[in-house]
Design a protein that fits this description.
Layout lengths: L3 H9 L4 E5 L3 H9 L4 E4 L3 H4 L11 H14 L4 E5 L9 H15 L3 E3 L5 H12 L4 E6 L5 H4 L8 H17 L3 E5 L3 H10 L4 E4 L7 E4 L1 H4 L16 H17 L6
Parallel strand pairs: 1-2, 1-8, 2-3, 3-4, 4-5, 5-6, 6-7
Bound molecules: 3-methyl-2-oxobutanoic acid.
The site of 3-methyl-2-oxobutanoic acid (KIV) has 12 residues, from β6.
């Protein structure tokens, strides 16, 4: 099982980190058996699994429920769990209580939270100080959808400088890695070269130290596929066909056991 310290070694040794999201026991077991290094119980489960419009309604109880199921399916991968919207932004104490619950109740090894502004950096420093490994997340941060939309970030010089500075500050605060979501590839490469902790990209080009995808996107299970997410198979089509075949068998009384 890679530890957060070993993930730092991946970067030092030029080894790419393979990360994917999981939301239940079955998916987690498949990803783990396939050799994925890091499994993220991302708050994207709000949309892909629970049918919410965006990630904002997801509660801490809901993500803990799913993270426990994921943990039961994983023997090797490092498990990181997202802190849901408003489970960490209001104060450092709230963040400690939420992250503490995740580690205590799910058995996951780390938490992820969005944002790189000074208040968030201070919260991360405190979480790390008390022994909670933290993954940062900058660029497109879906919990800020009402401010940012789902547009690519880092398109102006000011925004590029801000993102680079945030990455440096997150490393200084003790984050063990940073997700870079939907930013220009050259900016993601510059950030990855500037800091010594691994960057994990999604829609950020190939210059990162690893990649993550929402597994439902990779499997072709989502209706609203982001432009940067590649579907490696169309499970919607395959499942629909299987259900129709089954349905036809039932209706024609063919033996389907
Ligand atoms: O919630 C999630 O799945 C994520 C990934 C997109 C990185 O944060």
């Amino acid at each position: 099982m890679p530890t957060v310290r070993q993930l730092l070694q991946y970067k030092a040794n030029g080894k790419q980190i393979v990360a994917l999201t999981a939301w239940d026991f079955a998916i987690a077991q498949i990803l783990d058996t396939a050799g994925v290094d890091l499994i993220l119980v991302g708050d994207s489960l709000a949309m892909v699994t629970l049918g919410y419009e965006n990630t904002l309604p997801l509660t801490l109880d809901e993500i803990i429920h799913h993270a426990k199921a994921v943990k039961r399916g994983v023997k090797n991968a490092l498990i990181v769990v997202d802190l849901p919207f408003l489970s960490y932004q209001t104060s450092t104490e709230v963040a400690i209580a939420s992250a503490g619950r995740i580690l205590k109740e799910t058995g996951a090894q780390a938490v992820k939270l969005e944002g790189g502004h000074p208040t968030m950096v201070a919260t991360i420093a405190r979480l790390v100080e008390i022994g909670i490994p933290v993954m940062g997340h900058i660029g497109l941060t879906p919990q800020s959808v009402h401010q940012l939309g789902y547009r690519q970030q880092g398109q102006t010089e000011i925004d590029r400088d801000r993102l680079l500075a945030s990455a440096v500050e997150l490393e200084r605060a003790g984050a063990f890695s940073i997700v870079l979501e939907h930013i220009p590839a050259d900016l993601a490469t510059s950030i990855s070269q500037k800091i010594s902790i691994p960057t994990i990209g999604i829609g950020a080009g190939t210059g990162c130290d690893g990649q993550v995808l929402v597994t439902a996107d990779l499997l072709g299970l989502t209706l609203r596929q982001p432009p940067f997410a590649k579907a490696y198979v169309n499970l919607q089509k395959i499942i629909t066909q299987a259900v129709q075949d089954y349905s036809n068998d039932v209706k024609s009384a063919t033996d389907n056991r």
